[in-house]
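Quick one: examine this chain and its backbone structure tokens and tell me how the chain folds. Here goes:
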Amino acid sequence: MRVNRSTAVVILGISLRIATAFSAPPAPGLLRRFRAPSHATRILAAPHLRGGDSSVDEMDSAPARKTKVIKGVREIADNFDAFILDQYGVLHNGQEALPNALECFNELLERGKKLVVLSNTSRRAKDASAKLPKMGFDVTRTFGLVCSGEEAYKNMNQHRRGQKVLWLTWAARVETDGRALTNFLDGLDLTLADVEDADFILCHGSDTIQGAGDPVLTEYQHSGDMSKYKETLEIAFKRGIPMLCANPDVRAKMPGGDFGHMPGGIAQLYEDMGGAVTWFGKPHTQHFDASVRLLNAGHEGEELRVCHVGDSLQHDIEGANSADLDCLLIGGGIHAEDLGLEDGGEGVLKSATVAKLQGKHDIHATYACRAFCW
């Protein structure tokens, strides 16, 4: 449904729909069957790999589930009423739309398909939504955006107001984007504190430690060096303070092609020490549940046929399987190298390679495609 509104109203509307999705009970008969994942109390932040193409071959078999390799989303579009779309590695690379992604996004909309964006970004939903139109994606025609950062914010708003926090965050790189990153705590009445005094740790970014004083830059995002975090986390563990992780990704493919080390790696280190970590985002079934509720808003009649589209086996495909949703693995994202593809999906997606990768992780998609292309 096309809605002509100002950007501010659009963002507010999306935020309201997101709030409703997480607070309202599911309407009877509208949700697909949801079963709790085996890791329902936490989210596994398994290391990511990343990557699509113009020619494919038929897939022979997969160890636990046959995965059909397709040339484009047009082959399966008529099978579904709605799609849940990952951001990074599917729609864009963090700076610009991926090749063919915008066309595919618009083709689905023109055919009346309902769309929701589901992301592990540590941004607030309103900030993540504001970024998409700059890349050409018309968010006014979607049913909203669900993201791990928003869920972490809601949790703090409900349970952490007035507390002291050690904030593991991002450095503000540019003025406009930096504000969207560094205003994350606005409205929570939290006090920044050093690890010796903090009530909890917020793992939100991966290159800055922000306590009561000046920020400490770590370079972990680029180098993978955790030395500046280890001492801090050891003190936190001895004090028994909990951590909230607003982005469970361990690695992500950066716009320049290199891998970046993400907040999930820091949270995994703390959990490995024995620290208590609360994880937000995929593959937790709650976030797929919320996405389906957004799609079902105002829907009457038969149950919607929903497909999730993502590029990560550990987060997207495992989460969709746990939520009992059909899913499409995009090869040109985080797993591109393992699948023999270039970034963005250039190359040939071979069924044998897909089967080998999925078998290694024992995670299997319904479909696989080189890229999010029509």
About this structure: The CA atoms of residues 3 and 140 lie 6 Å apart. Residues 1-16, 22-63 have pLDDT under 50 and may be disordered. Residues 7-23 form the longest helix (17 residues). The chain has eleven helices and 18 strands.
